[in-house]
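re: ur question from earlier - yeah i can do the single chain one, its not a big deal. heres the input i used so u can compare w yours
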Amino acid sequence: MEIGKRIRFIRKQQKRTQEEIANLCGFTKSLLSKIETGATMPPVATLMKIADALKVKVSDLLEEESEAGTVYTTSEQYQNNSKWIKTNKGYSFFAFASERRNKIMQPYLFKAKKGEIKQHVLSHEGEEFVYMLKGTLKYKVGSVEYTLHEGDSIYFNSLEEHMITPVTDVVYLAVIAEKDTDQGSG
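and the output i got, formated as tokens:
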């Protein structure tokens, strides 16, 4: 199931309106509608806001089926282009272990090309760790801008406003510890 359809399914299952969820997320009903219909693919920070509003984890939006055990990902799985999600902000990401339910962190592999990122400020619940695998990236956290090269890393509270600007084409690993949601059974 596509992400937008999954969001709509969960929202309707909870008997909640687009307006209610959009208000909780701090954006328009129109944007949520575009996300649900697949007309736009939101960045990870927006997915985190939607997941928080729906009281689920981001992985619940990415995968219909979930499991509680160990999740093994082969290099072939993340090298498969059909598994990557291309956002409307100019970058693509692969969510590792998205089928694992009730996890406290979500690892992502991001790819971005110099000049293709639409500048936008990110802010979301949780903490974030970024490790540069390839290229050079300017990563602004709060009022401080860091230049990350291959092998560099940064760890910060992701409520702080942050923004990325690829200096070259980049590949980096980001691990985001999501805010604990109040998930009841049933």
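The first strand starts at residue 85 and ends at 86. not sure if urs matches, ping me
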